Amino acid sequence: MLKVRRFGPVTQYLMGVLHVGQVYYWCACYQFGDALIDAGAPLCAAELLAAVEGAGLARVAVTHHHEDHIGANALLRRRLGLEVLAPAAALKPLAQGFALRPYQEMVWGWPELHAAQALGPELTTNHGPLEVLATPGHCPDHVVFLHHESGLAFVGDAFFSTTPKTARIDEDFAQGLESLRLLRDRRPKTMFLGLGQVVENATEALGQCIDHVERLAGEIERLADQGLDDGQIVEALFGRESSLRQLTDGHMSYRYFVAAFTRRRAAEKGAGPA
Ligand SMILES: [Zn+2]
């Protein structure tokens, strides 16, 4: 299923795969001038191709290598001749592949392996250049695209909500917090998210998110100082594990959010004076 929505100069392609008549997970990509930012999930690639044919695209640039952001890259290049750009650290997983869990395979499908070109500091579009800002945390290769003149920010999975507390097994939310601060300091007006939400008052929302994560990080540190392990900290802070843990076969949980901060604390203590 694919829906097209317009937000001023931005066209959103919102996609999801139907499972028993229901879309469980949406993903979005965005057209800004002749550039497409992100390329949806592999199972949505043919639908996306049909939607963007004739839309005047010259290139597709992705925020990171995850399967729900790169799905149509190879098809768009083959059929429409688009240039495919990705963060330098994403080139290897795009060309050689990466592991998917059964739930990811079911919801998004396997991406076609493909070569891409490394993004530079700016993404060229016929509506002016976008800054390519490194925002590691969700994954090491993550970037955000910013159009400073209009205050538009295409943030991929660098921001999900103002109150995050779940993380992937490979996510470093302590690093993600630093990326959120970098992004907030650019003072964006509108954020376009990888899941499809469009956030107005973006700088304010980023500030709320940063306050929330800093508060949780402080609590985690305090509980770790008392000798609690990650599981006990989850219990003390949230009372239970996230339902996503079971739905994603252990791929996402509160515990991985907590672990990013206890890992950093342990590393800082290890590096400090004895
Ligand atoms: Zn992602």
Q: Your description of this structure?
A:
InterPro entries: Metallo-B-lactamas, RibonucZ/Hydroxyglut_hydro, Sec-metab_biosynth-thioest. Residues 26-195 form the Metallo-beta-lactamase domain. It holds the Pfam family Lactamase_B. This is Metallo-beta-lactamase family protein. With 274 residues, the protein is α/β, with parallel strands linked by helices. It has two domains: 1-123, Metallo-beta-lactamase, Chain A, CATH 3.60.15; 129-274, 4-Layer Sandwich (Metallo-beta-lactamase, Chain A), CATH 3.60.15.10. It has helices spanning 45-52, 73-80, 91-96, 102-107, 173-185, 202-225, 230-238, 244-247, 254-271, and strands at 2-7, 10-19, 22-32, 35-37, 59-61, 83-86, 117-118, 122-123, 130-134, 143-147, 152-156, 167-168, 190-193, 198-199, 252-253. It has a seven-stranded mixed beta sheet with strand order 1-2-3-4-5-6-7, with helices on one face. α2 (73-80) links the parallel β5 (59-61) and β6 (83-86). The longest helix is centred in the last third of the chain and has 24 residues, at 202-225. Zinc ion binds at residues 64, 66, 138, 157.
**Hey, roughly how much beta strand do the residues contain?**
15-25%
The total beta strand count reads 15
Low-confidence stretches: none
Radius of gyration from the alpha-carbon trace, in angstroms: 19 Å
For the record, what is the CATH homologous superfamily label of the largest domain? Ribonuclease Z/Hydroxyacylglutathione hydrolase-like
Shape: globular
Question: How many helices does DSSP assign?
Answer: 9
Q: Separation of termini?
A: 58 Å
Helix content estimate: 25-40%
How do the SSEs run, as a string of H and E?
A: EEEEHEHEHHEEEEEEHEEHHHEH
- Mean of the pLDDT scores? 94
Strand order of the largest sheet: 1-2-3-4-5-6-7
CATH third-level topology of the largest domain? Metallo-beta-lactamase, Chain A
Structural class category: alpha/beta
CATH architecture of the largest domain: 4-Layer Sandwich
InterPro entries: Metallo-B-lactamas, RibonucZ/Hydroxyglut_hydro, Sec-metab_biosynth-thioest
Protein name: Metallo-beta-lactamase family protein
Pfam family, one: Lactamase_B
